[in-house]
Design goal:
Strands 1-2-3-5-4 form a five-stranded mixed β-barrel. Helices cover 47% and strands 17% of the residues. One of its GO terms (biological process) is DNA recombination. Pfam families: HHH_5 (PF14520), RuvA_C (PF07499), RuvA_N (PF01330).
């Protein structure tokens, strides 16, 4: 399995780039968003990759971040969503957009991708909504564009039996940091994200990062 390649950009087309790795050229299919972010001809690039094996063909797909790669793999588990369709969704929405659309059940956003009809969009949201938080949590480490301050500690409302000055357990603090980073990366302000997380932890203090993200998104979702 080829998991990552590093080499020089030889040339690119509308759907793939040829990467020269020590004299061997790899055809790597990418979303248009990823292709637009690659360096110019002759410059070095690195891509996480996923190899699709078929009886008569081998295709290599490339991604700039681990979060993008994991979303691609997860999308292709949905019946009717092939590798090229998953790239279309990634190119239209981006990693953050996919996370937000699926976590919040935004079918219209998913079907805005070329080649994705309403039935497929509905299936994607229905089948992946419970899996979205785990990929979003990965995005805090696997997405190099994350700039949130993950050292921020959120003060959690606690019962009177819990000393206010007691620091949260290491696991809880880590989940808070992951959730805060993921929510900020989705476009929420640090204040509103921190408040939502604090409210969730007041009711469910033992949630892991995935569960915390999912519950906080529900609180942040518009009502009415």
């Amino acid at each position: 399995m080829i998991g990552k390649i590093t080499g020089r950009v030889d040339y690119r087309t509308t759907d793939y780039v040829l990467v020269d790795v020590q004299g061997v050229g790899y055809v790597v299919y990418c979303s248009d968003r990823t292709l637009a972010m690659l360096p110019g001809k002759g410059e070095v690039t690195a891509l996480y990759t996923d190899l699709l094996v078929r009886e008569d063909n081998l295709q290599l797909f490339g991604f700039l971040t681990l979060a993008e790669k994991e979303w691609h793999k997860l999308l292709t588990t949905v019946q009717g969503v092939g590798a090229k369709a998953a790239l279309s969704i990634a190119g239209t929405l981006g990693v953050d957009g996919i996370s937000r659309a699926i976590a919040l059940g935004d079918i219209a956003a998913v079907k805005s991708a070329q080649g994705i009809g309403p039935k497929i969009a509905q299936r994607i949201v229905t089948e992946l909504k419970d899996k979205a938080p785990s990929i979003m949590a990965l995005g805090t480490a696997g997405n190099t564009t994350v700039e949130a301050d993950t050292d921020m500690v959120i003060e959690t409302p606690s019962p009177s039996t819990r000393a206010a000055s007691s620091p949260p357990p290491a696991q809880t603090a880590g989940a808070q940091a992951d959730a805060l980073s993921a929510l900020v990366n989705l476009g929420y302000g640090q204040g509103e994200a921190a408040s939502a997380i604090a409210l969730v932890l007041g009711d469910q203090p033992d949630l892991d990062s995935g569960g915390l993200i999912k519950a906080a998104l529900k609180r942040l979702a518009p009502t009415g």
